[in-house]
């Protein structure tokens, strides 16, 4: 991979969607709640929301290497956040946490 392509690739992975930071927090909170329901966690609502916000950021970052996330809207961001939060909750279960 040449340096220009690598720079463009990394720049695209750090680009926010049209939702913005406040949108990420709101969508992440909703995604955390939904992921907690899907995974049937015992962490509690507040922890599920925090995991959702973190999952939204991680999921969006990782997915940006595969697709152009900057053109995604609310629904795409919500899907990505739910996916990221579910994966994060699953990893917490693997780590031995009682979820």
TrEMBL record:
Domain of life: Bacteria
InterPro entries listed in its UniProt record: Transgly_assoc
UniProt keywords, alphabetically: Cell membrane, Membrane, Transmembrane, Transmembrane helix
Pfam families in alphabetical order: Transgly_assoc
Compartments it resides in: Cell membrane
Gene Ontology CC annotations of this record: plasma membrane
UniProt topology in membrane: Multi-pass membrane protein
TM ranges: 20-38, 45-67, 73-92
Principal localisation: membrane
Sequence similarity: Belongs to the UPF0410 family.
Designated name of the protein: Transmembrane protein
Taxonomic placement: Bacteria, Bacillati, Actinomycetota, Actinomycetes, Mycobacteriales
């Amino acid at each position: 991979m040449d340096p220009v392509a690598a720079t463009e690739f990394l720049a695209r992975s750090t680009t926010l969607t049209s939702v913005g930071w406040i949108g990420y927090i709101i969508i992440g909170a909703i995604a955390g709640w939904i992921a907690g329901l899907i995974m049937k966690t015992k962490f509690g609502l507040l922890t599920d929301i925090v995991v959702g916000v973190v999952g939204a950021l991680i999921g969006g970052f990782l997915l940006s290497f595969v697709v152009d996330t900057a053109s995604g809207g609310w629904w795409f961001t919500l899907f990505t956040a739910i996916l990221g939060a579910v994966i994060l909750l699953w990893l917490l279960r693997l780590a031995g946490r009682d979820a």
